[in-house]
TrEMBL record:
Pfam families: SSF. GO terms for cellular component: plasma membrane. Belongs to the sodium:solute symporter (SSF) (TC 2.A.21) family. It comes from Streptomyces naganishii JCM 4654. It comes from the Bacteria. This is Solute:Na+ symporter, SSS family protein.
Amino acid sequence: MAVDYTVIVVYLAGMLAMGWWGMRRARSKSEFLVAGRRLGSAMYSGTMAAIVLGGASTIGGVGLGYKYGLSGAWMVFTIGLGLLALSVFFSARIARLKVYTVSEMLDLRYGGRAGVISGVVMWAYTLMLAVTSTIAYATIFDVLFDMNRTVAIILGGSIVVAYSTLGGMWSITLTDMVQFVVKTIGVLLLLLPIAVVKAGGFSEMKAKLPTSYFDPLGIGGETIFTYVLIYTFGMLIGQDIWQRVFTARSDTTAKWGGTVAGTYCLVYALAGAVIGTAAKVIYPNLGSADDAFATIVKDELPVGVRGLVLAAALAAVMSTSSGALIACATVANNDIWSRLRGVVRPSGEQHDEVRGNRLFILIMGVGVIGTAIALNNVVEALTVAYNLLVGGLLVPILGGLLWKRGTVQGALASVIVGGLAVVGLMAAFGILANEPVYYGLLSSLVAYVAVSLATRPTDEAVLAAWRERLAGRTPDLAPEPVPAHQ
């Protein structure tokens, strides 16, 4: 295992080095939070694919393939569909807004007063998303070093917190590009063909497994529908995803770069399901489907390759974890803390804003690590995150983009009613039940439409300013300073 350990240690050291390098570029709020809005198509596509394909998509996707066969691809497939929908229909408009958070977009569209409440819901989502990714370190480091769960979470979480705090979005972008390459080589080019060969090829897999394993709808129609509601729609509105859209150099980059990333996700989904199906042939009696990835990597891959594939799994977890962490800190600082304090910073205080956001990443990172140590169930934490996001924020966000008649009162009612309905229904039916997101989303829609129609339309001046921002005409925004070394 010495060679595998060396591969992992070099990888982790590289992540920290890129965090240090990114710190030199992050000289303004824009550089720190959205990489100066200067990413070209190649970097944008790679980093977007990296953030949406995390530990759940890699380890969980293989586990679903082990349990259901090819139809286990649906979870990650719906993530790819959501990213494609966001990129084709909404990303250009989102990029032209030149904001930092989803709540800022809601304030622009509805004329203020929606930010704090929507910020709290978005903060809860990004916090739980970061926690689920951090918990996944325990699985990977257990395979690598037979490490204690708490120590593994602290080790993996501390590395992500370190490079995210140092360089913000620039560090995360650089590390995500490396993580994208490592995942592509480790999972698609190495693990996928090796797993199929070890299982005896597709003909042997078909001979040894039930036909349901090769039924594209074998996982069940209701499950697929729930995945669409949670993951496809979740991709449209998450702060972690939008913050990556804000990094695009232009609306064209956001549209076509995101389309490439979404297509990559579809390929990754199928690869994970095939690897899981192959693992079912090789290890038909695993105690847990989620052990399939670690088992096939540990037992079937040669020295060196095993280290690279485990680094790929680590890359998947780290990319999602760092993206969720900076999103969580951005929302906490810009949408909650600054608004509650009523602080409006002068435009010249760029360095102080970097320092403040850096401090919030550190604080949120410590909180995420502590929460991850206290929680055990990754699936439940992830379900809570997406139920809150979709049930509380989908309607007012898409309504603001698509329906002129929506009002700030309707948006607030939608967030509050939908959020409370989701929480209440999870308490009544259980966290993993489908009813919370179904009825939470429905109640949010009813509240939005009813209250919007019952209140005065949004002021025309607010809508005119909103249309100007959507069109990319923002004369009130001073250009971001470019660091001297650029």
